[in-house]
């Protein structure tokens, strides 16, 4: 019996374990940290052995194949030992793809992928399609394949997941953009990170489609290196010629396969970045045979994604916006670009090799004050203090929101768009966003 060992016992790892057990493998799950109780219960219910707080070496290195959580870096000591032993390492998505013939609509990009994935899922659900939401959001693909199979899956893919995918094929691949992110995981190499994102194209055939933002300079450069068999579906907000979809003169247009148009002002999502997301989602739906009426209604009534430019409240004339998902500089750029009121910007967290030059001009144009929120804010002080804006140093969300309240006057916006990962002070970006919302609403 082939033995599969799973490193990491969160959503993807436990889902992979359940699927592996169902497929008749000898399965063992190991997590260096503590496993959440509901995952323990799921493993126990399927009689899958597990351990927490350690990796028992002889129980890992006797595997025929390893399924690794995307959150575990290749530099982790056990991963290095697995590689030295020559044991193949794959992702949960790769593993799940072996046991389903469902249509896969896969979305990646440095920014916007959660919104776009959620919007595509919203359209498919409204159209009555049998569809599952998976990847970085929703339940793990492997668990759905094992226990709740669907005809279609809408899958958000991070670069970490793409790293360990080899034979998996996206029937529709969506690449929104490529900007610096997670460079600490890629030896500070933008090319390595870019190569990971481009893996979404691997194994596509002439029967598949590749949707991409035509103006992204990195994507344009990379496409010169690839022989792509799938149907190219570029979109734009600045040109029409050669585009499968675009926004021009206040109108949202899909040229083919089924012509579609609607007024831009009818789109539920506002801001330039959301134009890209709405175009990509509309193309994916159109390619999948969804009617124009459903696409129009879905693009008009989508409610957005939690922690992504999420309106929280308005207190004493001050608007509070939660953009905790903005864990890189480019995401913050999009958030600032959409601001129309004087802004108090909250920055900080675990820096991933950020270059803040991209938002320097917008900070000067849009912000009246900066509040730093992190364990170590020295890099923020070094870059932003010379701009001459009022700044505050904080190390908890309570102090951060209090500092924002001191700076803000009626007509201002307080924007949490931190540019950084959350793990220095918070469990994750959701925890950071929830704390911000709770404190803002209590003012």
Classify the helix fraction into a percent range.
Answer: 25-40%
User: What value does the average pLDDT take?
Assistant: 94
In what order do the strands lie side by side in the largest sheet? 7-8-6-9-10-11-12-13-14
Are there runs of 5+ residues with pLDDT below 50, and where?
none
Which descriptor suits the 3D outline? globular
- Biggest beta sheet attributes: 9 strands, mixed
CATH architecture of the largest domain: 3-Layer(aba) Sandwich
| CATH uppermost class of the largest domain | Alpha Beta
Number of strands: 20
Over all CA atoms, what is the radius of gyration? 22 Å
CATH topology of the largest domain: UDP-N-acetylmuramoyl-L-alanine:D-glutamate ligase
Provide the number of structural domains: 3
- Head-to-tail CA distance between termini: 60 Å
Strand percentage lies at 15-25%
- Global structural class: alpha/beta
Could you state the CATH homologous superfamily of the largest domain? Mur-like, catalytic domain
- Count of helical regions: 17
Description:
With 443 residues, the chain is an alpha/beta fold. It has 3 domains: 3-90, 3-Layer(aba) Sandwich (Rossmann fold); 94-301, UDP-N-acetylmuramoyl-L-alanine:D-glutamate ligase (3-Layer(aba) Sandwich); 310-441, Protein-Tyrosine Phosphatase, Chain A (Alpha-Beta Complex). It has helices at residues 11-22, 37-45, 57-60, 77-84, 92-97, 113-126, 141-147, 159-163, 190-198, 217-223, 272-287, 292-301, 329-337, 357-366, 378-384, 397-407, 429-441; strands at 3-7, 26-31, 50-52, 65-68, 89-90, 103-108, 131-135, 152-156, 172-175, 209-213, 231-236, 245-248, 251-254, 260-263, 310-315, 318-322, 343-347, 367-373, 391-394, 413-416. The strands form 3 sheets. The chain has a 9-stranded mixed sheet, with helices on one face. A 6-stranded mixed sheet has the order 15-16-20-17-18-19, sandwiched between helices. It has a 5-stranded parallel sheet with strand order 3-2-1-4-5. Helix 1 (11-22) runs parallel beside helix 7 and helix 13 (329-337) runs parallel beside helix 14. It starts with a strand and ends with a helix.
């Amino acid at each position: 019996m082939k033995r599969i060992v799973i490193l990491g016992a969160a959503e993807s790892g436990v889902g992979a374990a359940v699927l592996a057990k169902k497929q008749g493998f000898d399965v063992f799950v190991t997590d260096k940290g503590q496993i959440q109780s509901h995952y323990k219960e799921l493993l126990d219910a399927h009689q899958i052995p597990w351990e927490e707080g350690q990796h028992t070496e002889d129980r890992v290195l006797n595997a025929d194949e390893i399924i690794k959580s995307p959150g575990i870096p290749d530099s982790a000591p056990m991963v290095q030992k697995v590689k030295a032993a020559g044991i193949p390492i794959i992702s949960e998505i790769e593993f799940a793809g072996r046991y389903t013939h469902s249509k896969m609509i896969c979305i990646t990009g440095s920014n916007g992928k959660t919104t776009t994935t959620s919007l595509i899922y919203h359209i498919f659900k409204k159209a009555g399609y049998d569809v599952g939401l998976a990847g970085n959001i929703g339940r793990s693909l492997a668990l759905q394949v094992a226990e709740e199979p669907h005809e279609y899956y809408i899958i958000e893919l991070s670069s970490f997941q793409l790293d360990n995918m080899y034979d998996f094929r996206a029937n529709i691949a969506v690449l929104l953009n490529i900007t610096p992110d997670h460079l600490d995981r890629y030896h500070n190499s933008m090319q390595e990170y870019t190569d990971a994102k481009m893996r979404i194209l691997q194994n596509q055939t002439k029967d598949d489609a590749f949707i991409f933002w035509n103006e992204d300079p990195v994507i344009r450069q990379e496409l010169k290196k690839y022989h792509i068999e799938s149907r190219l579906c570029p979109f734009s907000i600045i040109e029409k010629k050669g585009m499968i979809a675009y926004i021009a003169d206040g109108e949202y247009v899909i040229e083919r396969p089924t012509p579609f148009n609607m007024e831009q002002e009818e789109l539920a999502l506002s801001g330039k970045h959301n134009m890209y997301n709405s175009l990509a989602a509309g193309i994916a739906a159109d390619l999948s045979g969804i009617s124009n009426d459903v696409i129009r209604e879905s693009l008009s009534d989508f409610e957005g994604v939690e922690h992504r430019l999420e309106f929280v409240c308005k207190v004493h004339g001050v608007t509070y916006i939660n953009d905790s998902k903005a864990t890189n500089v480019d995401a913050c750029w999009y958030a600032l670009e959409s601001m129309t009121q004087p802004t108090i910007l909250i920055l900080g967290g675990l820096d991933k090799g950020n270059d803040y030059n991209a938002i320097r001009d917008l900070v000067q144009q849009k912000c009246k004050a900066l509040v730093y929120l992190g364990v170590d804010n020295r890099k923020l002080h070094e870059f932003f203090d010379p701009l001459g804006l009022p700044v505050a140093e904080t190390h908890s969300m309570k102090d951060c929101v209090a500092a924002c309240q001191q700076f803000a006057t009626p007509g201002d916006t307080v924007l949490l768009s931190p540019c950084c990962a959350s793990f220095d002070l918070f469990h994750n970006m959701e925890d950071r966003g929830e704390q911000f919302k709770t404190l803002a609403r209590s003012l």
